[in-house]
Structure formats: C-alpha cells, structure tokens
Amino acid sequence: MKKSVKTLAATLLTGVMTFGAINANAMSPKDQDALGKAKITAVQALSAAQAKIGADAKVKGIDFKHHYFGKDHFEVEMFANGQKQKVAVDAASGDILGVESEAPKTVKVSPTADIAPQVSFAQAMDTAVTKTGGKVAEADLEHKRGMAFYKIETINNGVVYKVAVDANSGQIIDMPQKHKGKHHKHDRFEKGERHEHHQNEGGFRQN
C-alpha cells in the first residue's frame, strides 16, 4: 500500500507451493505480539470499513499496523466513487480512526482487474485462517498472468504463512509467478526462504 497524498478525514492517529511456511522476520516480535492481542480480526476490520465506505466498494488490501500514531489498527484500502480510500480501523475496539482519500494514479490495468471476483475478500481470509490456524496480518487482491487471486499472510506462533487463494474458485493454489524461471522475492515462496517485509512508514495524518 502506497502513501496517500490527500487527507479527506483523519482523527487519531495489518518451491512455489500450495502454501508456504516461512520462519522469517516478516513481522518483528513486537508486531506479532500486537497482532496476537488484537481484539478484532482482519475480517471484522474489513466489515467495519465497508460499513463506512459502502459495501459495493472494491477492496484492494488490508494490512495490520502496530502502534501507528498510538493505535494498533488495520488499514483497509478500497476504491469507491472514483477515489482510493484508506480506512483505519482500531484493532482493539473496531472503531473507525480515520479515512484518507485520493484520486488514483493512471496505471496499466490487468484485463482481470475490472472483473468482480466470485470469492469475497472475507471468504478468502477465512480460508487462509482455516488452513494455517493463524491471524491475518496482510492480504491483497492480485492480478497476474490473466488470473485474479488473494495473497494472504498469516502469523501463527511466530511462523509466517503465505497463502494464495483463487479469487473465482476459492481454492488454495500455487503462488503465481511474474516471469517463469526467474526468482522474485514477493512472488515466489519456497520452504525455509526468508521473506523480507518492509512496513510502509506512512500513516494517517493527524488533524
């Protein structure tokens, strides 16, 4: 998730294989502990964001943020009314902490990007949680090689799991590759591989 440029409103301020388990520093121990103590789940945070922005908004991703502006929260990125919306949902109470809005930049769009997935974001996250027994730290809707899928990261007892869920069938699939035969850190997850995850240092501006 990239930084927002314009603030609409913000008050105070988560070998290629079917799924991979990586003992890695994707999240710091403090971040993992904070996620473990979150009172709401990523699915509940998504529901709160949809209630705020609208159930018909397109969801791009959700990410757990530890102690940004004094609050642990889930940041939900959505598209509605021609605007990119970022909604901060308190990880303890489920309250909306703030919303940021900006006009999306013109980008090359995948042929599958405008096709509504048959499987919802919430359903895909539930699938990943059931498979790994962990909590969702980050999830994104991706479009690669003519297919749409959810890329979901869960944490369970210090183990990071990467799960790809087909956006149309709901089945757990192999993680799609950008380029056949080439290694890309964020596209290929082999057993035991270290996955470097850098959190966005941006956040919701205080008013």
TrEMBL record:
Q: Which residues form the signal peptide?
A: 1-26
Q: Which domain of life is it from?
A: Bacteria
User: Region labeled Disordered — which residues?
Assistant: 176-207
Query: What species does this protein belong to?
Result: Haemophilus parahaemolyticus HK385
Q: Where is the composition biased (Basic and acidic residues)?
A: 187-200
Q: Which positions fall inside the PepSY domain?
A: 39-100, 119-174
Alphabetical keyword list: Signal
Q: What is this protein called?
A: Peptidase propeptide and YpeB domain protein
Q: Show the stretches that span the lipid bilayer.
A: none
* InterPro entries for the chain: PepSY (IPR025711)
Q: Which Pfam families match?
A: PepSY
